[in-house]
Amino acid sequence: PKDQETSFKKRGQLENVKKIIAVSSCKGGVGKSTVAINLAFSLLKQGHKVGIFDADIYGPSIPTLINKENAILQAPEDRPKEILPIEYEGLKTMSYGFARKKAIIRGPMVSAIVTQLAMQTQWGDLDYLIVDMPPGTGDIQITLCQEIKFDGAVVVTTPQKLAFVDVIKGIEMFDELKVPTLAVVENMCLFVCDGCGKEHHPFGPGYMNMLKNQFGIQSSVQIPIYDMIAKYSDYGRPVSITLPDEHTITKIYSSLAEN
Ligand code: ADP
């Protein structure tokens, strides 16, 4: 039917993806990619068909996080305009980091290239596509929101006041673009000292209550600093598939997936 054809032209290979979720942050280094990849694996473990799309052209993290830095993109033989996703443990992944030649891309071109990459990847039928967004709330992010129509967003932050101010910017950007913020993740909120066993809050108590009261954010997830998260990230094996389901870290990520 004609309607279907038009819709396919608009969404390309995203056509059969049921829900597209953006994982976003306003600053780099707060744990956005870590949350994105672990959320993807938690959903996969719950029995869903999942893909992850790395929309960060300037700092792609997904190839490192799944230890596939040497993977090379290929087109299916009969469909030269499509791209085969790189699969890892049942997760379909795509990143500009897999491209053989990485051209220098000027700002205005970024969103067009990222959108094209998302739409040409053979995702097939997916329940969820998690999009690891580039950090920030600028032109690139706004255009991506408009082109890849997100069903919801997860905003990742750390507990400092500066990060809190940015988180509001993020929520407001998604509000304006009619994308509901499904959850705010406060990462690195505390650590448990292995000497004294006490909980320490190196960045203060955080601002979650204020977010709940002022912005009506119902779902918040707090992730402590765990050396295992950093260790397995460096290894290229996300904790959600490494640690048993009963482990606190895995439980936190699966509660985020249930939200
Ligand atoms: P971003 O995508 O926001 O730039 P990353 O997800 O790449 O951030 O995380 C930055 C670094 O912090 C990575 O080395 C990652 O392993 C580490 N990291 C993230 N969250 C945690 C955590 N809760 N505990 C320990 N290390 C973490």
Q: What do you see in this structure?
A:
Belongs to the Mrp/NBP35 ATP-binding proteins family. GO terms for molecular function: 4 iron, 4 sulfur cluster binding; ATP binding; ATP-dependent FeS chaperone activity; metal ion binding. Keywords: ATP-binding, Iron, Iron-sulfur, Metal-binding, Nucleotide-binding. It comes from Tetrahymena thermophila (strain SB210). The chain is α/β, with parallel strands linked by helices. It has a single domain (2-258), classed as 3-Layer(aba) Sandwich (Rossmann fold), CATH 3.40.50. The protein is built from ten helices and ten strands. Helices cover 38% and strands 19% of the residues. It has helices spanning 2-11, 32-45, 62-65, 107-120, 139-147, 161-176, 208-215, 227-235, 239-242, 248-258, and strands at residues 17-24, 50-54, 86-88, 91-95, 126-132, 152-157, 181-187, 191-192, 199-200, 220-223. The strands form two sheets. The protein has an eight-stranded mixed beta sheet with strand order 3-4-2-5-1-6-7-10, with helices on both faces. The protein has a two-stranded antiparallel sheet with strand order 8-9. Helix 2 (32-45) crosses helix 10 (248-258) and helix 4 packs parallel to helix 5. A hairpin with a 2-residue loop joins strand 3 and strand 4. The protein is globular, with a radius of gyration of 18 Å. The structure holds adenosine-5'-diphosphate (ADP). Adenosine-5'-diphosphate is lined by residues 25, 28-34, 61, 187-188, 223, 225-226, 229-230, 233.
